[in-house]
Specification:
single chain, 7-stranded antiparallel sheet, 4 helices, 39% helix
Length: 222
């Protein structure tokens, strides 16, 4: 029995040794392969390098669409209140998660007021001259936080900033100037709409008759 068992065990050991030996393709030749494209590190700037963070909170932002008369989501991300190290100006910036696309970007002015939105203690609304889309536009924003505490922190911080600005005459004048600009934009938009309506209005038969008589009169004078 022993003579039949030993060769079998030996064969198994040899097979195990063969399996443990590295194959030709596993051998390390020591050759180094250079990358086809060499990538260089690029410094990414956000425009926030010269600003100090006063507040940093996660939230979901909405803007009011006047044409559709409804709230539209602007994005979920991080809202920051940033103070410039040299000018001391404070702005509100919010970027979407992952893409970092800016969905709100405007100065915090003495005229800015934040109110609770429809009795929801986790949400609040405010008006601002926003520059997130590359042009100054009057916007109405609503924001919803994950907790009552975060919403209160936001409102309290805005109130603290605006009260401090109100005591500084320079900031107060700037706030008034921006408020006047917003009012001007609203008036110009209204005037444009009224002018367009007047152009599109149908001309009455009497108006056409008066216009024809006027043209005939001018022709006879020539």
């Amino acid at each position: 029995m022993a003579s039949t068992t030993e060769p079998t065990n030996l064969k198994k050991e040899e097979e195990e040794e063969d399996d443990s030996k590295p194959g030709a393709e596993d051998e390390d030749t020591g050759a180094q392969v250079a990358p086809i494209v060499k990538l260089q590190e690029v410094a990414v700037t956000t425009g926030e390098e010269n600003e100090d963070v006063l507040l940093d909170l996660k939230a979901k932002l909405y803007r009011f669409d006047k044409e559709g008369n409804q709230w539209k989501e602007r994005g979920v991300g991080t809202l920051k209140l940033l103070k410039h190290k040299e000018s001391d100006k404070i702005r509100l910036v919010m970027r979407q998660n992952k893409t970092l696309k800016i969905c709100a970007n405007h100065l915090v002015l003495p005229t800015m007021t934040v109110q609770e939105h429809q009795g929801n203690d986790k949400s609040c609304v405010w008006h601002a001259a926003d520059f997130a889309d590359g042009e100054l536009k009057e916007e109405t924003f609503a924001i919803r936080f994950a907790s009552v505490e975060n919403c209160k922190s936001f409102k309290d911080k805005i109130e603290e900033i605006t009260e401090s600005m109100a005591k500084a005459p320079g900031d107060s004048e700037e706030g008034t100037a921006v408020a006047n600009l917003i009012e001007k934009l609203s008036v110009e938009s209204k005037d444009t709409e009224e002018k367009q309506e007047a152009e599109d209005a149908p001309v009455s038969s009497q108006d056409k008759k008066d216009e024809t008589e006027q043209q005939e009169k001018i022709g006879s004078e020539k």
